[in-house]
Amino acid sequence: MTKILYVEDDLSSQRLVQRILTAEGFDVVIAGDGIHAIESARREKPDLILMDINISGMDGYEVTTRLRTITGLENVPIIAVTAATLRGDRERALVAGCNGYIPKPIDVDKFTDQVRAYLVGMEETVESAEEKAEYLLEYNQRLVNRLEEKVRELEEANAELQRVEKMKSDFVVLAGHELRTPLTVIYGYLQILQANPAIPGNNENEGSPRHLLHKVSEAVERLSQVIQDILNVSLIDANRLDLAHEPVFINSVVQSVLHNLRSFGPQRKLIFELGGGLKKAPVIEGDPRRLHQAIGNVVSNAIKYTPDGGTVTIDAESLEDNVIHMWIKDTGVGIPTNQLLHIFERFYVLEDVALHRSSKTAFKGGGLGLGLAVTKGIIEAHNGKIWAESPGYDEDALPGSTFHLLLPIGNPFVKAEE
């Protein structure tokens, strides 16, 4: 069947033309705006395109000009079907790249014959070279004006987005500080109560006062960490993340991370293998607290996506150019290959949010999707790099994942200051 693409944003016109042409044996594809028209033309490869000029977004002139630059569509007949019937409208359509012109309202009795005529090669032209040059100059000027208008609109929209983004970042920072103040008071009083020997029970005696205090304390710590992650993302986005300049021992950071994660939740039956390269890793300069947080997020991610009985391997090596290469490898469910870049985006979560469980160590336990984004910001603030590798996601085969971190051995802040 001969395929015709009809570009029209008016529903009644779409139905009329589709009904007429379908009854005559044509295959009709409809596009309601300029962008969809370009996409449909690329995909459908029509034998002829009927183009309304006055469509939303890109108008028919601009869409026609764009279609003429797409490989495989250069010679497809494009016919203007439009209510623009003033003097010069036909010539403007032809100058933009149309092969013909059918005014609206269409003549139902003649319309099919007109379409067939264009399909077999009929083509209209602007009669004189002078007139064509005049309309072409007008059309080029119109495109330049349109481009300038769109650039101004984009600049204004970008400025507004920047303003809103700053307002959002400022609000998050202020809200975070406001929330941390009462949390600090709550946590302080909890510590006082837990230190009181008169409180009966113990942390393991479920239901006892001391056990309840312990659970509340854990919840406060978890809430404090969530608030801190949100603050960190906002500071990273605003390029306001302050870093200390201190010696950092990578092996000590890893040992501290594992100790903290083991005490954060129920014990998991995982094997942690620490390579000999960690002890041999040279001292680097950086912010030990931030690097502890970054490495902790990656290790926590490995724990969450590795089922019981799996292995998490952590090792490091010194490379040329004064760089430490550190990697965290797990035998977990892996990561879909098309998601390897997205996992470092803010608020990205791999699992179904309907199955969300707030835990840093439980298998497939969820979070806000900020941990790896914070990690990326911290590593890049040290002029380092982070990326992930995985053969894919498979809960049965357990292909695993490997996260790589590169950190400079020298002063990581020199480049940033320059």
Question: Would you write up a description of this structure?
Answer:
The chain is an alpha/beta fold and 418 residues long. The chain folds into three domains: 3-127, Response regulator (Rossmann fold, 3-Layer(aba) Sandwich), CATH 3.40.50; 156-237, Helix Hairpins, CATH 1.10.287; 246-417, Heat Shock Protein 90 (2-Layer Sandwich), CATH 3.30.565.10. Helix content is 47%, strand content 15%. It has twelve helices and twelve strands. Strand 4 (78-82), helix 4 (89-96) and strand 5 form a beta-alpha-beta unit. The chain is elongated and about 100 Å long. The termini are far apart. The model has no long low-confidence stretch (mean pLDDT 87).
Features of the shown structure:
Rossmann fold, Heat Shock Protein 90, 418 residues, five-stranded parallel beta sheet, Helix Hairpins, 3 domains, alpha/beta, 12 helices, five-stranded mixed beta sheet, 47% helix
- Give me the CATH fold name of the largest domain: Heat Shock Protein 90
How much beta, percentage-wise? Answer: 15-25%
Please write the string of helix (H) and strand (E) elements.
Answer: EHEHEHEHEHHHEHEHEHEEHEEH
CATH class of the largest domain: Alpha Beta
